[in-house]
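$ ./design --mode recover --in tokens.txt
reading tokens...
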């Protein structure tokens, strides 16, 4: 009653005031989420998805792709703003919407969690999903610090084998059809490999959250991790050490967006990642050149793969712009439905996640970091 009177006062401007203070009883309590009854029973062996985070990438890419995969049930969507969650529910056909992640993590009907929040919360939600016995696909990066990475490792170590829980990071590029073809061609050629990955990322707007150290970790971690993982995938060897150098950031409040990252692999192969924000973002985005056993292989924006080997040249084309997202999600769903294992070896995922954190350590110290 008093709340209604307060709104009437403000609307009518009957009494001069700067604002209205509403005082609630100390006995008020926030109840635990009540899960609505499902509109339909999930079929046996279904991948029942709970999504935490409803940002642009989740709404425009992840959810539409998941909805196309047979055996997927979109159960609950969670966003910090309840209105965003409700909009996502209506748009994509989730069974329920909530503003509290407990609606996903504590719901026994959900066996697959997709984490698409801002970077600083990835490790926390991934660890909680694993502790709840659920498979989790967490967008990159997995962690912004070694402490966060250890949180995920500890949670995964405590998962019973029979639960079917595993974790996968959104390193989609290794699933792109032409990236897999490039790996197969490199594997045919013995000896050491030399790989260069040029990323023409384009600059972010000043103040963008992804470029901030606390929330996004900066672009070298937040996006550079894609290419550390891709190099590891292509070479097929353990990363032994990293060394990195970065140009000064364009704005004092941001971390650098331009860096050279050098990876040395256990078998002697080398990879260099040139991550640049200073170029024209409308030009070609990503170009990979690999050299092995007398062959040069060039992957251009994941659309064309050119193989030059002792004077003979072959070109393969793939017009799809998805960079492996659809294939990555299909592999995750298949893993959930079969009860595991993870589509990508989890130890390898930990390795590449540790390597990108070692890159940041190298930038801080100016030294090569041994892994």
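writing sequence...
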């Amino acid at each position: 009653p008093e709340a209604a009177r307060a709104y009437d006062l403000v609307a009518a401007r009957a009494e001069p005031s700067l604002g209205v203070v509403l005082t609630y009883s100390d006995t008020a309590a926030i109840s635990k989420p009540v899960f609505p009854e499902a509109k339909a029973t999930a079929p046996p062996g279904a991948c029942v998805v709970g999504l935490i985070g409803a940002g642009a990438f989740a709404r425009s890419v992840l959810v539409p792709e998941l909805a196309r995969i047979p055996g997927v049930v979109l159960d609950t969507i969670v966003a910090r703003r309840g209105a965003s969650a409700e909009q996502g529910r209506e748009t994509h056909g989730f069974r329920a919407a909530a503003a509290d992640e407990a609606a996903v993590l504590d719901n026994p009907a959900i066996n697959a969690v997709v984490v698409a929040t801002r970077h600083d919360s990835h490790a926390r939600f991934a660890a909680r999903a694993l502790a709840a016995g659920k498979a989790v696909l967490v967008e990159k990066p997995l962690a912004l610090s070694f402490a966060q990475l250890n949180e995920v490792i500890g949670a995964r170590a405590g998962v019973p084998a029979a639960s079917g829980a595993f974790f996968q990071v959104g390193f989609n590029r290794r699933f792109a059809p032409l990236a897999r073809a490039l790996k197969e061609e490199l594997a045919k050629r013995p000896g050491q490999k030399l790989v260069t990955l040029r990323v023409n990322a384009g600059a972010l707007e000043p103040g963008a959250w992804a470029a901030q150290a606390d929330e996004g970790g900066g672009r070298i971690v937040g996006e550079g991790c894609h290419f550390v993982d891709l190099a590891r995938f292509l070479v097929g060897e353990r990363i032994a050490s990293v060394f990195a150098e970065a140009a000064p950031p364009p704005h004092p409040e941001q971390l650098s967006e331009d860096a050279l990252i050098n990876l040395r692999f256990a078998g002697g192969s080398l990879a260099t990642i040139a991550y640049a924000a200073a170029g024209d973002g409308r030009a070609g985005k990503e170009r990979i050149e690999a050299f092995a056993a007398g062959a040069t292989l060039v992957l251009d924006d994941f659309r064309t793969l050119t193989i030059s080997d002792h004077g003979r040249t072959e070109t393969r084309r793939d017009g799809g712009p998805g960079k492996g997202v659809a294939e990555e999600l299909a592999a995750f769903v298949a893993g959930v439905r079969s009860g595991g294992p993870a589509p990508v070896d989890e130890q390898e995922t930990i390795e590449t996640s540790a390597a990108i954190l070692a890159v940041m350590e190298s930038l801080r110290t100016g030294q090569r970091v041994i892994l």
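exit 0
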